[in-house]
Structures are given as C-alpha cells and as structure tokens.
Amino acid sequence: MKKIALLVVLVLSMALASYAVPLPTLNLNETFASGATFTGTLTFLSDYSNLTAVTGTLSGGPYGTDSINWIWDPTINYAAAGGYTPNFGGNFLMDGTTCGNECGSYTYFITLTWDYSAAPNLLVVTPGPILSAEGGNNVNYDDPLVSGSFGSPVPEPGSLMMFGSGVIGLAGLLRRKFSA
After folding, report:
1. pLDDT recorded at residue 172
2. Quick one: which of 80, 99, 123, 136 has the most CB atoms within 10 Å?
C-alpha cells in the first residue's frame, strides 16, 4: 500500500512539474564607471531574445540604493529594432513605477544589451557603434558599463519539486530497506 501511495505522489509531482514550462531566469551582475553596481534577476522569453521581468538593486555611485523592478517595453527588442539581429537582445531596466508598456515614473534606468547566440549562456555586449553611441550598456546614458556578466540560472520551481519528490522517495525506500 505504501509503495502505491509513493508511486502516486511521484507521478503527481512529475505531472505538476511538467504542467507549465516557466520562462528562463538568469542572475545579472554589472559594475559601472561611477563604481555603482547592479545585481538582479532577469526573466527572459523562452528564446532569450527579450526580457519579461526584472527584480534587482542599483547601488553605490551617485544612485544610493535603488530598486530596479520593471522593463520599459517588453514587447520590443531594442537591439533587434536597431538592426542587430538575430543574436542580440536589448531593453531598459527601470526603477520607479510603470503604467503600461511605455510610460511610467522613473529616476534611473539601465540600458542592457546581450548576445544570446549561445543561449542559455548569454554575454553582456554592446553590438556595433550605433548602439554604443545611443547608450550601449550604462545607467541613464551617462555612466558606462565597466563589466557585466550573467550568472547561473535560477532553478525552476518545477525542477525543485521533482528533485524534492525524488529525494523523499529515495528516503522512503531506504527507510523501508533498513527497517526490514
């Protein structure tokens, strides 16, 4: 009876984990010429061509500590709109509040462009002289990027659930084996 219950739990866990495929999420760390840093978590479209969400902190330099919490217009890949296709993505990471795709109340923004040709391994880059002249990677077009890198992907909740179910299942089997 216990084996059947364990099997049901494992099957349900796998079914729930595969029910919705979450969008890919990566950590981003950047340092700017002023000494300011940005550390945050970015959620991408499934092909890594654009962002859907950001949660992070811009700190140091002249900015104090500022919450970066929305994307300017997640329906536009600004690098592709500038002719840098098919391998480049670009958007604006914003502080303040949003009121839709293109308006909001903000003080600081970070321009971010990346190369996703080897996705999920992304590179922070400024493709070509046009994007560099129009901002590239910086804060408010004034504070240029010194270094930037994407970190390890954040584990998906479904993956964690499957891993946890497997560990629980193995623990149950080992407990039964040793108690017999």
Report:
1. 63
2. 136
Kindly list the distances between the CA atom of residue 94 and the CA atoms of 79, 137, 145, in Å, as whole numbers in the listed order: 17, 13, 16
**Over the stretch 114-148, which tens digit does the pLDDT of each residue have?**
999 999 999 999 876 666 666 679 999 899 999 99
Claim to verify: residue 103 and residue 168 sit in the same structural domain: no
Tokens linked to 118: 């080897």
Residues contacting 170, CB < 8 A, separation 6+: none
Residues 7 and 40 in one domain: no
First to last CA, the chain: 16
Indicate if the pLDDT at residue 52 is higher than 70.
yes
Count the neighbouring beta carbons within 10 Å of the beta carbon of residue 30. 24
Single out the residue of 44, 15, 12 nearest to residue 28, CA to CA.
44
Distance CA 78, CA 130 (A): 12
**Quick one: 80 and 118 in the same domain?**
yes
- Do 13 and 92 belong together in one domain? no
**Residue 117 sits in the same domain as residue 174:** no
Look up the domain containing 113 and give its range. 25-155
Q: Are 41 and 25 in contact (CB under 8 A)?
A: yes
DSSP classification of residue 134:
T
